[in-house]
Amino acid sequence: MTASVTDLLLDLVRTHLGDPEIGPDDDFYAMGGDSLTALRVVTEAQTRGVPVSLRDLLHHPTARELASHLERSTAAQNPAVTAPAPVAPDPAELLAPGDRALVPDGVLEAIPASALQVGMIYLCETSEDPELYHSRIGWRTHGPFEETLFRQAWAEVCRRHPALRSSFDLGTFSVPTQLVWEKAEARFTVEAAPGDDPHRAAELVRAWSVKQASRPLDWSTAPLLRCHVVTSPGSFQVALSCHHAIADGWGLGRLVMDLLTAYDALLRGAALNLPEPPATAHRDFAAAEAAALASAEAAAFWLAEADAPALLIDPDRRPTAADAVAQHAFDLEPELLTALRAGARRAGTSLKAFVLGAHVRTLAAWVGRDHDVVTGVVVSTRPETPDADLVVGLHLNTLPLRFARTARSWAELAADAMAAERRSVPYRAYPLAETEARLGRPAFDVTFNYTDFHVYDGLAGLATLRTDDWWVAGKPSFPFRVDFEVEGLEGGSRVVVDFDPALVAPEHAARYAELYRLALAVAAREPEAQAELPSASRAVRA
Question: What is the pTM assigned to this prediction?
Answer without folding.
Answer: 0.86
